[in-house]
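thought: fold this chain, then report.
action: predict
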Amino acid sequence: MIKKIIQAIAYLIVMFTLGFGIYYFLLQPNSLLKSSFGNYTQLSTSTLFAAKLPNENNVQQVLKQYQGKIIVLNFWATWCGPCRDEMPELSQLHTENLNKDVVVLGIGIDTVDLIKDFTLETPVSYPLFAAEDEGMAIALALGNDRGVLPYTVIIDRRGNVVKTYFGRINKALLESTVKPLFL
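observation:
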């Protein structure tokens, strides 16, 4: 009897989670992608530019080297399906806009080994970094108060956050945000 009750509760939890996932990712994608931050001036990029993170080859990189560029900063993880789904479009955006001083950066909330294994299976054209727990602290400083992955931050040449997105994004959405920054 207790086993059937537990199974029923587990079934309800799975159904609720599935229903929420469908609603969150399919029915309301644009409204839920938008950050709750209306005033981006409260967000500081100092934690990002002070960070020194290993790339997928375990070579330490100073993120300050990207200061002065338009940055599409994407927080992701190898286990995150929506994160993996958006990577081809992020790669295209990065490749198509290199001559416009736009860079896509991926901060993986994973170990170097997991990111290295991922890149062997799924190459990307933009720099990836392993950050584990430090990555979530950087994401929080940049407005990810929900702890959601993927999380994307658009930073202008002056180092100001101009837009943030929770959840899966696409190239068209990013282009509409980045193009006005070319001026």
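thought: worth noting. Residues 2-27 form the longest helix (26 residues).
final: tokens above.
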